[in-house]
């Protein structure tokens, strides 16, 4: 018999008694994909089993502690066992050790403590790509293009320098200091800085700008604590600039706080319209309705999604689609319709337990199928979609009639596997030749762009907007320089291959150069010019199909 099948029930039992011993209390704070209203109840021990069961389990633990042949660290044993238990429940339940809890919250909390730089590792050296406005590094005069080469009087370069190592070294508690030495182009000696760490904002709205005189574009990377405020700032600015319609880009947005997405959808809905509801075996149905206070009711909305749009992104797009408040453009979304409740344990660790499923206004649950114990197969779903051609043709998607639902105006929509767009946009394969694939899988595109920006920083820094940056680059010979760069890197290609993907390479390089000088305000407006999904959205909103 499979040893794992024998051990798993025992491990589950051990988990139950450990949970009973340390005590589990429900957190009031809503985490990623939690209930709209967090439970304030404390789970009672009677939920875990009978008194006799606990006596038996306690006896087992006592025997292990007192009679096992070797010393056992129960805490380490617990941390080793719990991830497997949670992983075997469903794809999204999880155990988070106390040492990782703070880090797991940072992306959604709206800030973390650090020195305030964006960096990239080039040639085994930390390159400062951008400096956060108002952060401690900017106040000290650290600049994009600087290279951090020493930390606390120790060399901090080499092949063992990783992103994770840099983050752990440069981040820290607010008010603590870190000493660094920086090499700056044109300066012969190393520059010394004592940087006092401070709160660094984590922005979730990457960019907003006018795509056309009528259409405003806003890109959201996650639904965090500050996302609603950032979203409103962006929409208000676009409205003041003349926007009559909005494109909300949720591609590659994996979700986040349910409160944030509810507030954001509410801006477009009339009072009493259902946004989402949650329901589970042990959880009564909870409905969330629009309160009628939205400032953008009546505005036409287009939501962009793809296979990496999940959870809160699907709540947003599902509500807009079901209530016929706008259109969805792109490819089928991920398909995560499970609700996790954050449950803190008294030792500082957490479990995120799936307690319900959420449903869009039409009643559909968009959770894609999974089987307990087959999570690895679930995680390969995106690869399988690609292999069967779903990224290239919408008719490769098979949806069961039993999962058919209808929007408020009677349009047919489907549940059970993500949000299907109203307008499908295939992944562009026309430029995917051997050269483009090789460059995409390497660091050469970014490496050259950083090198070009760094070498020409004095000139480029005088350029203050993306249009002027693009105009300057198009008059330069950066593509010829790029050819020389990849030749030096031993990249083999033919003139025909380069010609075939020349336009997309030029677009990416221009965007990367602009990012190194202007940040995301320079990157996205240039990069999006070659985006077929955005082009399709604009076309549809202009009345063309």
Which keywords apply here?
545 residues, alpha+beta, six-stranded mixed beta sheet, 38% helix, disordered N terminus
Describe this structure in words.
- The longest helix has 20 residues, at 3-22.
- It is globular, with a radius of gyration of 26 Å.
- The protein has 20 helices and 21 strands.
- Helix content is 38%, strand content 20%.
- The strands form 5 sheets. Strands 3, 4, 5, 6, 7 and 8 form a 6-stranded antiparallel sheet that branches. It has a 6-stranded mixed sheet with strand order 10-11-12-15-16-21, with helices on both faces.
- The chain is an alpha+beta fold and 545 residues long.
- Strand 3 and strand 4 (125-131) form a beta hairpin.
Helix fraction? 25-40%
Number of helices: 20
What sort of overall outline do the alpha carbons produce when their principal axes are compared?
globular
Average pLDDT metric:
85
Structural class based on helices, strands and sheet pairing: alpha+beta
Low-confidence stretches: 1-32, 34-50
Distance between the termini: 59 Å
Radius of gyration over alpha carbons? Answer: 26 Å
Proportion of strand residues: 15-25%
User: How many strands, what sense, and barrel or not for the largest sheet?
Assistant: 6 strands, antiparallel
